[in-house]
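Something for you to look into today, if you have time. Could you write out one complete protein record for me, on any chain you like? The space below this message is yours for that.
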Amino acid sequence: MAMRENSTGLQEIKHIVIADAVLIVAMSLTLTGGVFALSGGNFLKTFLPILPIAAIAVTLSFVLHELMHKFVAQHYGAIAGFRTSPNGLVITLLTGAFGFLLGIPGATVIFAHNFTQKENGIVSLAGPLTNFVIFGIAIALFYVMAPATSSYLYETLSIIIFISILLAFFNMLPVFPLDGSKVLAWNKPIYFSTIGIIFVLMMLFTPIPLTTIIFMLVIALFFSLFYRVRI
């Protein structure tokens, strides 16, 4: 699956669509407690209504995150494109089915012969910062529109806020090959200020238990081991 040029061709679009679809289903399952919570009429009552909401939130947070990696890498003269991971797709679906999510459906693959540490750090930072911008826009809309918003739009904005900031925080963890490890290697003040701000905002607007943060660290370490085995 070598990439010979920077254009977003049909093959790359196919990979992005597949990864996005799998992540949408997995996220919907996670938000509804997994397949064991969908017995009887719960499938129609909970899973189907959450599916379009998850589609909006995941597509904004995940696809734009990956595309920003691609575009910034191209700016520095690299060849870049998104590719799915067959094993990652399976893991994403299986974990979602059990009510928790290890979302590793694929990643933006970058080929560069002369990337500096700074350029690699900036490319890596572009993804989480994109999630941060999405979070900021969603927060602003949430509070501006809250008095007159419908319950469906209210829930959509809430899930966008949750997923975008959570994805930003997870990707900024200093565990290879996550974005945070490359940002940390490039510039420690930028790394710690960025993850610090993201962490504070995450705790303020989407209060997450300490056990969930520990769980994310475990997932990140597992992801690192999985990645190392793959290469």
User: Anything to note?
Assistant: The chain has eight helices and two strands.
